[in-house]
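Board work, copied verbatim: VanW family protein
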Amino acid sequence: MAKSDETTRPEASPLDGFEPEEPRRSRTPKVLMWTGIGLVVLVGLYVAGQWAVADKVPRGTTVAGVEIGGKSAEDATAALEAGLAERLTSPIPVEAGGNAAEIDPESAGLGLDAAGTVDGLVGFGLSPAHLWHTLVGGDDVTPRTTVDDAALDAELTAAAEALRVEPVDGAVVFADGQVSATPAASGSDVDVEAAREVVVTGWLTADGPLALPVVTSEPTVTQEETDAALALGRSLVSAPVRVEVAGQQAELPISVLASSASFVPADGNLQLQLDKDLVADAVIDRTTDLEKKAADAKFVFVKGKPVLEGGDSGLGLDREGLAAAVLAAATTGGDRTARVELVPVDAQESKEKLEALGIKEVVAKFSTPLGVSSAARIHNLKLGAERVTGQLVLPGETWSLTETLSPITAEGGYQAAGIVNNGQLTEGVGGGLSQMATTTYNVGYLLGIEDVEHRPHSYYFSRYPEGREATIYVGSIDMRFKNDTPYGILLQAYVKDGQVTVRAWSTPHYRVESTTTPRSGVVSPTTKYSTAPGCIAQGAGSPGFTVTVTRKVYLGDELVKDEPRTWRYNPQNAVVCGKAPSDKKKD
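↓ predict structure ↓
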């Protein structure tokens, strides 16, 4: 079979006969392009917005009550400095433990860092929250402070001292036979380190006083110890205490127990004590001849020589032991009876003690003539001699003649006799005692002991050695010497055979050499007239002159004192009571 010459064709399409279209281009690139442009614009606007507010303080921001929101950094800083200017110099009130004080901010080295405070509130940022916070509103911000640490510590330490609350120790006291207590209380001290932070952070923002932190300080005597002491005190005064001693009894009433009792703080405790002397005196008052007093040893003169007598021991209460026994009887719950014994009591001045002073022999003696003396003058000298006799001057002791003779009054037994007052003869109670001063002074002079005080008369009396004499006047002129030897010095004085004599008993110690210069500057006496009340006429006496007396004191062969003393005597002028002849002619 023969093949067909026609070619096989596809089936016809409904679109056959239309012109074919050009292929379409994609829109995606353009969309992406415009989107990117939009984003760039938005980011730019966002960044521009952030830059626009970078120098602005967030709206509504306050610092220590000062509004600075919405202001530039410069304006905000200025506003902050102006708004807090007064507070920067005002005292800062602080309180602690119920006490109040103030801190001077300038003295404490406290200041405001206004720029630093604002710097922390402004600045560029990409956070949306930052932009929102800046535009919508800020907070109440704590200001930044500058601090001089040393100055602040000094101010805080001073304030802490003012704010310190002392703890109160418990106490128990007796009054009117009753016992009562003062409660214990804690104290407080400012914690300076912790207080520093409180002041630094709060001094510009606080509405009232800053409450400074404290640490508690406890009392030494606690309430527990106080309560225990109170119970003991109540036991003491709950009833009388009976004391049995040497066959006698004495009942001590509550009033005596209370008046003699006291609580004394010791190592955190309250110790109950009784005044030993008050208790002993109360027992003695309620017994008969309970104690036998010891007799002190003393020197007496027998036939002109010193003899020791006395020095015997006695019997007495052991005062400390008695107080302890009474306290135990009153507080231990027994029959409230204290049983004690008398104990030997030694004399304060024993014979052994006085024997050791070396009172062995007369080591110095001096006499002055009575001359023409009134009975009153002799009486005064005899009374003075009695008071000087038996005076014992211990090693290192300073002895005073006026103290020994006092009181130099009529009540003291002295009579009125002639004295020298302001260079004039007159009468006074105790007249003549200057002779006792001169005689005793010379004994001290010859002993070689220290001359503490003496003064010669204003004019010379021939019964005394020139330059070696003394007067006394109570209240202004005394005769005193100091015993600078290692031995005691016992004085003996008497008026006999027309003389006043003073002797010193001791052990030889110093050796004395004395020289007196011839008189110089001699001035003859003249006549004076006096119309003074009580004037006593007198004839012309000794001339005026100057004399020097030198005492050399040796200890063994060594010269230990070289003492020249110069004195100027006034002339003893004649005194006529009445007007001078020239005055009479004028009349």
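DSSP finds 16 helices and 36 strands in the chain.
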